[in-house]
Amino acid sequence: MAEANRTAEINRTTRETDISVTLNLDGSGRAEISTGIGFFDHMLEGFSRHGFFDLDCRVKGDLQVDGHHTVEDTGIVLGQAVARAAGDKKGIRRYGSFILPMDDALVLCAVDLCGRPYLNFDCVFPVERVGELDTELVREFFYAVSYSAGMNLHIKLLDGVNAHHMIEAMFKAFAKALDMATGFDSRVTDVLSTKGSL
Fold first, then answer.
1. Are strands 54-61 and 31-34 parallel, antiparallel or unpaired?
2. Which one, of 161, 151, 148, 86, lies nearest residue 120 by Cα?
3. CB 61 within 8 A of CB 17
4. For the segment 99-158, what is each residue's pLDDT rounded down to a tens digit?
5. What is the pTM of this model?
6. How much is the mean pLDDT over the chain?
7. What is the pLDDT of residues 60-80, one digit of tens each?
8. What values do phi and psi take at 60, rounded to 5?
9. How many other C-beta atoms are found inside a 10 Å radius of the C-beta of residue 123?
10. End-to-end CA distance of the chain
């Protein structure tokens, strides 16, 4: 089973950020990212590549304040794009999970595209910053994605020493789990729910 044009384009402008995101769930992993925070760009590129999502993300934020609005609002818009691109969710697996190793880091990510937002984020970082990204903003990003997409999202650090590796493993594990959850299963003829809708 396949469905054409699982893409979304979202634009969001506030006094704090100006964001444009285009997402194709059935892409090849092509990314054009510019957020003003180099390490965050790198994480979104990894998300795109490892989930096989085509992602164009342009962000102008009030970085003279700090990175909070840029990172959180990008999560909001990306979550909205995921929800819109997934559409009515007919024929998709709905659930996805992945345990991803990256050197010393080992991260578990599980996704349920159920329409009910929830984030369980279990990680304590050993440093406050990686590059120009405050590590506390990683949770804020995933919180924003989960709530604006209406997904149940669990991210758990199973092991790790290096914060760069921890965060990168999170973004890649999320990509793999989301790719699985948005993928089609020929046995799912409508939506995977006893209620008949998601």
1. parallel
2. 151
3. yes
4. 999 999 999 999 999 999 999 999 999 999 999 999 999 999 999 999 999 999 999 999
5. 0.96
6. 96
7. 999 999 999 999 999 999 999
8. -120, 110
9. 18
10. 18
pLDDT band at 4 (very low <50, low <70, confident <90, very high): low
- Residue type present at position 166: M
**171 close to 49: Cβ distance less than 8 angstroms:** no
The pLDDT tens digits of the residues spanning 32-70 come to 999 999 999 999 999 999 999 999 999 999 999 999 999
Give the pLDDT score at 1.
44
Residue given tokens 């997904």 in the structure block = 151
Closest CA to 12 of 54, 46, 61, 48: 61
Contacts of 111 (CB under 8 A, 6+ apart): 95, 96, 97, 151, 152, 153, 154, 174, 177, 178, 180, 181
User: 7: which 2 tokens?
Assistant: 């893409």
Question: Which DSSP string do the residues of the chain spell out, in sequence order?
Answer: ---S--EEEEEEE-SSEEEEEEEETTS-S-EEEE-S-HHHHHHHHHHHHHHT-EEEEEEEE-TTT-SHHHHHHHHHHHHHHHHHHHTT-TTB--EEEEEEEETTEEEEEEEE-SS--EEEEE---SSSEETTEETHHHHHHHHHHHHHHT-EEEEEEEE-S-HHHHHHHHHHHHHHHHHHHHSB-TT-SS-SSTTS--
